[in-house]
Design a protein that fits this description.
The protein is of the alpha+beta class. It is flat. The chain has a four-stranded antiparallel β-sheet. Strand 2 and strand 3 (41-46) form a beta hairpin. The protein has helices at 18-27, 49-62, 84-95; strands at residues 3-11, 34-38, 41-46, 68-76.
Amino acid sequence: MTTVAFLSVAPVVEESMAAEVAEAVAALDEFDVSYETSPMGTTIEADDAATVFAAAQAAHEAVDGDRVSTFLKIDDKRAVETTADAKVDAVEEHLGREARSGEN
C-alpha cells in the first residue's frame, strides 16, 4: 500500500460523538482500505489516493448532523511502497524503543 492517511470525522455537538463516529468508521468498510481507529482519529491505508478520498467522503457523509467537521491528512508515496506500520517502525528504530509511554 502506498497511501497512508489520517481521518477524523465528527459532528459538532456538545454530547458524546461516539455513535456518529462509529457510523463514519463503518462507512470505510465499503472501500478497499485497511484502517485502525484511535482516540483522535482513524489511520487509513489504500493503494491510491483516490480510494482514500472516496472513503473519506463516505465517512463524512455517514455522519448525521447540522454541522460536521472533517480533517484528512494524506501521505501519498508514489515511488515507494510503504505501510502505516513501517512508518511507525522507522520512528521507533530512531527512538530505540516503542513510540509510546509506559503509562497508557
